[in-house]
Amino acid sequence: MNPLSEAHLKISRRQFFGKTATGIGAAVLSSLMNDKVYGALTSPKNALGLPHFPPTAKRVILLWQGGGPSQVDLFDYKPGLAALRLQELPQSVRSGNRLSTMTSDQKKFPILPALKPFKQYGKTGRWMSELLPYIGNLSDDMCLIRSMHTEAVNHAPGVTFSLTGSQIPGRPSMGSWLTYGLGSMAEDLPSFVVMTSSDMQKTCGQLFYEHYWGSGFIPSKYQGVRLRSEGEPVLYLNDAPGLDRVQKRELLDDIDSLNHHQLKLNADPEIDTRISQYEMAFKMQTSIPGLLDLKSEPAHILQRYGPDVNRPGSYARNCLLARRLSEKGVRFIQLMHGGWDQHQNLDTQLEIQCKDTDQPTAALVQDLKERGMLEDTLVIFASEFGRTVFVQGDVTKRGKHGRDHLGSAYSSWMIGGGVKPGIAYGQTDDFSYNVVKDPVHVHDWQATILHMLGIDHERLTYRYQGRQFRLTDVHGKVISEILA
Q: CA 151, 155, 157, 160: dihedral to nearest 10 degrees?
């Protein structure tokens, strides 16, 4: 979409009635019919012509595991490593792969096998770590991708690359692209919501930058709305003392009239953003408090997510809120959880981190499945990269060793939303260091996610500074083998 042409979309009432004689009838008819039935029969397209084809997913819940979980310890089963413990990783394996500055001058690269045993889960017999018993039990529904790879070797560029398609900040995030392309499903909630959490020990110093959910150069009304765990859930949402609901409505109507007048003169997308955000904030004043109140949740549901669900700001609580948000029509929910950057504390922190995330993640999937929502909800468990098979630090000292960043091979998984269940896709070498079969680049991963939402990633573009930009830049291919 060219922003200079957006003014032409804002036609007058007379033009609308004159040019769309049959459009009004269709709109009236659609309002009289059940939304789901109408959508299923006609697959209506929006002003951008989306969806390009029938989607298999309506919404996405992205469970972002910040810091880089170790695929060697959790998902990529390499039983042969046990016999190679503390032997030197061959130069031929390491050759050509970028490392972070933390081990770029390391002289020795001793192999460290998985800290805990792997076991087989489900009817598929999928091998995963015993540290993830709840996630392991999702094996029969899961598409496990073991062949992810990226050029990034540091956290902020890696996260930015995965979520915006570029290692340099400034481009729209994935949730913003989807909100821009597909619009909103909820009238009283944002289409794109973000929640953040960290391990209780606060071992990970990585920050959650706002450009991870920003809208970049497309209008800012498409950026994610962050729900905070302390204080006001959304900043500046509450009214000043003494202003009641009726007065607020009258004030907004006056402001709305002034903004529309200015929009008619300038056709500035940011004025349109201001109008829509004022209205959304007004609606959220009543929708958000009830949404965040878990008193209505049955005891057995709270127990399913684990004891940490009662702690505001915890990953467990955010997972439950993600289910509630998805029920209310939020299209893209981005949970960002830190604590996986285990350079020096792998042996002490990995198990704790798994306990924090394992049960709530599986509970979210189970909840969606019981409610019949998993079929059209895509749940993604992902990170910016993985970890090296060789050890970093002093392996003889507890709490003094770990693994460095690795972009050449790591794991991710998806469930629901049209993903083929019970499969493992891709393969790494014997050291979980290089992809040897069915590689999945970050741009391929992005293209596949868009595809499941009915979007051709090459056709969802936005013109900026003389160029048509897209989430996948000029790369990416849909991994059709993982689609049901």
A: 110
Phi, psi values for residue 225, rounded to 5°:
-105, 120
CATH of 58-482, one of 2.60.40, 3.40.720, 1.10.20, 3.20.20: 3.40.720
Buried b (16+ CB within 10 A) or exposed e, 332-369: bbbbbbbbbbbbbbbbbbbebbbebbbbbbbbbbbbbb
Pairing of strands 192-198, 225-226: parallel
The full set of domain ranges for the chain reads: 1-44, 58-482
Grouped pLDDT means (10 residues each) for the chain, 484 residues: 52 48 44 41 74 97 97 98 97 89 88 98 97 98 98 96 98 98 91 92 79 96 90 69 71 77 80 72 69 91 96 96 96 96 94 96 98 98 98 93 97 98 98 98 98 98 96 97 97
Question: Hey, what's the torsion of the CAs at 11, 17, 20, 25, to 10 degrees?
Answer: 130
Nearest to 2 by CA among 267, 223, 229, 179: 267
What pTM did the predictor assign?
0.87
For residue 411, count CB atoms less than 10 angstroms from its CB and return exposed for 0-12, middle for 13-18, buried for 19 or more. Answer: buried
Residue type, 32: L
Q: Distance between CA 123 and CA 139 in Å, rounded?
A: 8
Q: How far apart are CA 69 and CA 158, in angstroms?
A: 13
Q: How are beta strands 118-121 and 386-387 bridged, if at all?
A: unpaired
